[in-house]
Amino acid sequence: MYRGLIDRYRRFLPVADNTEIVSLHEGNTPLIPVPEIAKLKGFKGEVYVKYEGLNPTGSFKDRGMTMAVTKAKEDGMKVVMCASTGNTAASAAAYAARAGMKSVVLIPDGNIALGKLAQSMIYGAKVVAVDGNFDDCLTYVRELCDKHPIALVNSINPYRLQGQKTGAFEIVDDLGEAPDYLLIPVGNAGNISAYWMGFNEYYKEKLSTKLPKMWGFQAAGAAPIVEDRVFEEPETVATAIRIGNPASWQKAVNARDSSQGRIEKVTDEEILEAYRIIAKNVGIFCEPASAASVAGFLKYAKDIEPNSKVVMILTGHGLKDPDNAIKQAPEIFHVENSLEAIEEVIL
Ligand code: F0G
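A: This is the predicted complex of the input protein with F0G.
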């Protein structure tokens, strides 16, 4: 039986034999070929998405959270805390519940998707909606966790990236080799850093013979790394990556430069177009921030070497953000209670 990513990749992770694992059997997400997307650009290589929305709470955050909460529990902590644009909060709340611990989540008031809010609430987190943005919330969380015996579970907690690096392992295990390009959305910049670490560890163990070029994508209204300046008031429809001063900024720059990769911006229009395309042309529903990977492919496919292998990370499930889905979809038909009325609209 599959028992989660710590069990599967134990030898690469900082856990002892007797560590009690807090898991919801996260990881093991599918790598799905998407020739439909390649074809749109006349691209001759292979294109895949890694559908991280199929993790237990619907995002890649569960990979990091199984590690962070396992270690917090091992250290005897009773409460975990994070700042979040929604997904980290949902994941922290779920893993705290699983561990029998309490969770406190700080979210930017009015700027997180509805599904994520619902998750944090039902998993039993203390939800604090701050009249500020994610970066403000993270500042408070750092201070509060310094001051009180509370475990910080944002990605500045190194165990988070340890867990998240397993996404790279799974890709290499599935393909039998590292891909040539890894396309990934960038917000607080932890995930691109974690993937780069994972690919490097596998390479050093000779489990792959090459390293991918890391291509990160930020929203144009929240593109601090691309423009090399803090965004005081980040703004984007992709609320998950509405971040102006990423905590792992330097690590992401290192991943980009060491891999001869790039970090670019995509506009909200480009993100939403990719969001509709991946749903309508392929049948995969991701949240807007995740579609930044696909938007990046559509925008920069011209620069990708032909016949290469490209993996795009779809970081979160589309059901996280029903409001944006409904706004982007075609109209629905309201009809009276009769066969004729239905026939009239469908034929
Ligand atoms: N995609 C989704 C769906 C996210 O939720 C996030 C980050 C990212 C991409 C970017 O990943 O921060 O490692 O660069 N969400 C965080 C949160 C900030 O609070 O849920 P990153």
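The chain has 15 helices and ten strands. The CA atoms of residues 83 and 137 lie 5 Å apart.
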